[in-house]
Design a protein that fits this description.
Shape: elongated
Strand content: 35-45%
Helix content: 25-40%
Distance between the termini: 56 Å
Largest sheet: 7 strands, antiparallel
Strand order of the largest sheet: 7-13-10-11-12-9-8
Radius of gyration: 23 Å
Order of helices and strands: HEHEHHEEEEHHEEEEEEHE
Number of helices: 7
Length: 304
């Protein structure tokens, strides 16, 4: 049976285009809680939304519905070992289709309407294993500058929530109006927006494939390459990336993924949602030879 040309074209586009983009990661944002202070619904929403927005604006994630996460939050409880989250929570997260859960915890919450300050703990839980995949603590202070006080950590992390002290939250309910406290909180969260964005970038780096080498020099060294990522993933002209060679290494009978830097790139032109042309900024590189040898190469983001 002869397929009509228009139908054939539609079929080809349908098959090819989805493959050029990365699959979105599904995350569930567990609503913010404080161990000493009882958040109002407005405070909980403001803090939760500040974290959620960082994931939404990257355009790389599917966010589990907030109503479902509110129900899951009733089960949230870290065990004493603190490298595993309660099994019920993990199972519920899995049933909602989440690949990762993002836990938002705070401590030392003080808000007098003029200055709002507290410690914000962000934790990534891998639903598949139930393990903490990364954690970071940020100092939050309205009118000042947020400061990271605990760097990103990966793998099976065993860590204690920092800065948990006396019940400073009791001071938050002083004479200040609810409106002034809300504004102070919003200002404090605005101050650390970039740090929350960095948290997302560090723990969920972008990975793209090399589509082709667009330009080589006389020695056959790659000077410009086309990658499978564009503005659908937040890439823009001038962004810095790097090429890594990924291999599997056997360590004591266990397969471990090893990433070896090959060279650095800079986005020269974002063609559309799924493709960008990048200039190789490292003088010496072996991209062409590695591709010829069928090595597994990926392009990933660089976090300064």
């Amino acid at each position: 049976m002869k397929i009509p040309p228009l139908l054939l074209l539609f079929f080809c586009l349908f098959c090819v285009v989805p493959g050029s983009a990365q699959e979105k990661i599904t995350v569930g944002i567990i609503p913010a809680k404080d161990r000493q202070y009882s958040f109002s619904s407005t405070e909980e929403t403001e803090i939760t939304n500040s974290v959620t927005n960082a994931f939404v604006k990257s355009k790389r994630f599917t966010i589990v519905d907030r109503a479902h996460m509110d129900a899951l939050n009733n089960e949230k409880y870290l065990q004493k070992s603190e490298d595993y989250i309660n099994g019920t929570t993990v199972q519920q997260g899995k049933s909602l289709g989440a690949q990762y859960l993002i836990s938002i915890a705070s401590s030392d919450y003080v808000n007098d309407g003029a200055v709002c300050k507290f410690k914000l703990q962000l934790t990534v839980i891998d639903v598949t294993t139930g393990q903490v995949a990364g954690s970071e603590s940020i100092d939050v202070k309205g009118g000042g500058h947020g400061r990271k006080i605990a760097g990103a950590v990966g793998g099976a992390v065993v860590g204690h929530f920092v800065g948990i002290g006396a019940g400073f939250g009791a001071l938050a309910g002083g004479a200040a109006s609810s409106g002034s406290r809300e504004k102070a909180l919003q200002k404090a969260l605005h101050e650390i927006a970039a740090e929350i964005d960095d948290f997302v970038s560090v723990h969920f780096p972008l990975y793209f494939s090399i589509v082709e080498i667009e330009e080589k020099d006389e020695a056959g060294t790659a000077k410009k390459i086309l990658i499978s990522g564009g503005n659908n993933f937040g890439l823009k002209k001038g962004d810095r990336l790097k090429v890594v060679e990924i291999s599997e290494v056997d360590v004591d009978g266990k397969k471990i993924s090893r990433k070896k830097d090959v060279c650095t790139l800079r986005v020269a032109k974002v063609e559309d949602g799924n493709f960008s042309s990048c200039t190789v900024t490292t003088q010496q590189n072996t991209i062409a030879a590695l591709l010829s040898d069928k090595k597994k190469l990926k392009v990933t983001t660089i976090i300064d």
